[in-house]
Amino acid sequence: MTVATANRPSSRRSTKRTTPAYGPGGPDIDVRLLARSIAQAALEVLAGTRPLQQLSRLLDSECYLSLQHRAALTRKHAARTRGNPQPHLSPMVRSVRVCSISEAICEASIVVAEEQRCRAVAMRLERLDGVWQVTVLEIG
Q1: Fewer CB atoms inside 10 Å of the end CB: C or N, the chain?
Q2: CA-CA distance, 61 to 93, in Å (whole number)?
Q3: pTM of the entire structure?
Q4: What does the pLDDT profile of the chain (140 residues) look like in tens digits?
Q5: Rounded CA gap, 106 and 126, in Å?
Q6: CA-CA-CA-CA torsion for 59, 68, 37, 94, nearest 10 degrees?
Q7: Which of 92, 62, 88 lies closest to 74 in space, CA to CA?
Q8: Residues 6 or more apart in contact with residue 59 via CB below 8 angstroms
Q9: d(CA 22, CA 104)
Q10: Residue 131 CB contacts under 8 Å (≥ 6 apart), including other chains
Q11: How far is CA 33 from the centre of its chain?
């Protein structure tokens, strides 16, 4: 016995949303992918598995110093607690939402899952001299 089903046209539209940003040379840069990679890298810096210097071109000086300070505090706290030497192992980005404020400013919210909990990351990206740079970074 076979069951035949009618082919229905898909009424659902694609849920994939892109927030393209135009660089100086014209190629599109998906800000969601950039925000995702920066959030992943920032949490790896806090975990001690990535050097902070790799983010030096992507973060403005205030964000860079703030992340450097927080990473030092995290390492210091981890050294005091013997049970968990690396507190943030294997962070995985679960979702990214981007809101375009203007052609040169975007804000992103990212949900990151770790082994014990989920975290929220919020950032503001601004295009300065044709390069996207994080000017505000909040990690919950």
Answers
A1: N
A2: 25
A3: 0.73
A4: 434 434 444 444 444 444 455 444 334 468 999 999 999 999 988 888 889 999 989 999 999 999 999 888 887 777 777 555 555 567 889 999 999 999 899 999 999 998 888 889 999 999 988 889 999 999 98
A5: 6
A6: -130
A7: 88
A8: 38, 67, 133, 134, 137
A9: 9
A10: 57
A11: 8
* Both structure tokens of 57: 């071109």
Tokens 């983010």: give the residue.
55
Place of tokens 């990679």: 37
Residues 137 and 126 sit within 8 Å (Cβ to Cβ): no
Q: Which tokens go with 12?
A: 């659902």
User: E-assigned strands of 70-117?
Assistant: 92-102, 105-113
Structure tokens at 45: 């810096």
- Here the tokens at position 128 are 């300065």
